[in-house]
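pasting for ref. prot 1 ->
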Amino acid sequence: MSPDPTLTIADYVVSVVILVLPVGIGVWYAVKDAKKATREEYLLGGRRMSFLPVALSIFITFQSAISQIGIPAEVFFYGFIYIVSTFGVAASFLISYFTVVPLMYPLHITSLYEYLKLRYKSETVRLLSTVAGMLATLCYMAIALLSPALALQASAGLPLWMSIAVFGAVGTVYTALGGIKSVIWTDVFQTLIVFVGTLAIIVKACISVGGLSEMWDLAQSGGRTDFNRFTPDPTVRHNIWALIIGHCFLWLVNGFNQSTLQRISSMKTLADAKRAFLVLVPCILTYTSMFSVTGLVIFSYFSLQRCDPFKGKLITNRNQLAPYFVLHAMTDLPGMTGLYVSILCCGAVSTLSSGINALAANTVEDILRRPLRSVAEGRITLLTKLFVLLYGGIILALAYLAKTLKGPITQMATTVFGACGSPILGIFLMGAAVPWANKYGALAGLATSLTFNLWISIGNRVKGAPITPLPSIGTEGCSRWAGLDNSTWGGRDDLFNSTMSLVSAIVPSNNSWTQEASSKPATSGTFVLYTISYDWYSMYGCIVCVAVGLAVSCATNRFCSSGKGREEELHCSESRLIFPFIRPLWGMEEAEVTCYDASQSENHEKWRKLNSNKDKDIPMDCL
């Protein structure tokens, strides 16, 4: 273990190279595509992207530094059972393969929320969903940017504002310059860094504890490998059913996401889009397994040291565990600390770049669509780039300001992301599965589900019972570490705690991975909904949205339909807006259309003109 856990020259070289390369990719595509100043080129890559880089881009987009810091801590304090969640996530990708991809790709839309306008024939549904989704994205991007900045601040003593500015500027600049192409190819590079870097850390750590067999024995003796949690009780924080079913719904939200839609639409064919989602399955299985094993390795290492860093007060927040381990136990290998910091940077920058690109797309396609109708395509593309810069600046400011916010305000801000996710998922699923679901049902379901999610999420944070970690490994050996932590964390506890509380606050509402135990005592009179595990929030929110939406749709279809025109307005008669596998159940037939080669961008406009009847879809044999 190192008494001076600061970045060396080798660490800086590794970090700088990994930060500079994305900017180079952005400049390359800015020069290469300078004459292709169209939104389709900038936001969708001209619809000519190959499936493998797009698959890796989808994958790394939703793997932020929050998970890279949080999964090891989750396993260390609460057990290896968390790895079961990866099967739920993998299942969500397979469900998207049969639902989201074949529904969205043939529509050839740029904005996800354009589907809601087509399906529900309502600008209100589209606008409200857009605003909710954008606000949630802004909040989450700020937190994702903040996490690696904290790690670098703790390791090298760099000012927090400097770290945020560097990471944010890199992500914003290459996204603004090169558009979705630079985002996708940078994501490919960053995915490789994350996998290779994490594997290197695991190998080095395993060697230090005596190998995989010794690691597993230590974890087993410490009670971290217990999988015997099959209780259906929804108040149990983690059990097999919650981790699989709950996380399946949690990640289905990402299927109906603007960033995902842009990548689906960027590929050459529907077959390529489907292949991309199949590639996601082994990616997520490998990713979660690697970071879960990292948690076991860290547990084994500190078991041999007979020191629980949290109980021994070497760290003041459980989310500091992984950075603390790397910065103290792995500095004997030159560049390893820099590589770890780079992993966190990749997670944050990839999420940021995808987020600001999606926010810019929503702005020009959903919010400013009508005012920009008469504006030249080149100017709209330039305006889109300016919005990328604007949103990048806003997220930079939010990330920095987050350190000054404490308590319920920050918890509510981060809760917004999870609260918005499942209601939006609900109105998409309802609209794509039930032709008679209408705009009144969508609005009612959205409002009710948003309210429900915010209610139980905030109630859990305020009134919920405390969470008890697994038995500690003791603190007898922590004396040898005494004094080392002061050089790293000393003087910055308040800053780290206030900001890392943002990561913990996401837990009951979104896809965060760890949750701090509450200091307040449990009360027997706690309202039952406040005791529900956060794993179930997305599923319950989606169910509430669909149930209320269908009930209101049924009522309004019965009492508001007067005449054929009114009935057609409330019912969906376009088969292209319904999930393909459900169409036969509703007696909907496929329509023939003129095929086109999606690999040739000029043919896309030709296809749109030939098939101006929007009831038509692209048959599978065209692709």
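and prot 2 ->
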Amino acid sequence: MEMIQKLKKLRERDELEFKYQLRSLLKKSQLEGLDAFLELVENFKREIVFDSFFFIDIINESVYLFYLESDENFEKIVSLISILAPVGDRTTLDILYKVVKKLPRHNPHYPTLVNYYGEIEHKVSFLEQKIKNLKLSPMKSMIVKWYE
């Protein structure tokens, strides 16, 4: 909680340093657990959404890890996905696919998650069609590129 107050003060003074500190704090809170991570994301939701390119990889990774960890906190994971969905990328789409695939259809969150999946898929395919040379797929590792 103390660190959140420091970050709010830092945001007013130095925006770039604020982004790096928030990114670092997101990584640390990922280790502390879902509650700490969700609290941080909710406190800085506006900044995370507007500068999503700076934070999207950490949030994607966290959502996937928290999803694999436990099924008890599914409500909190859905709230993270609802923050992530408007700015999601191809990796977010893959994560949502895995979540929706394992989720029973009678789950109350199923329609919402399918809707988020459709929105992200539409956005990604629209961008790929709009810009012919753009393919929004995850980067391959160096070993895979070398092997090919």
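The radius of gyration is 17 Å.
DSSP finds nine helices and no strands in the chain.
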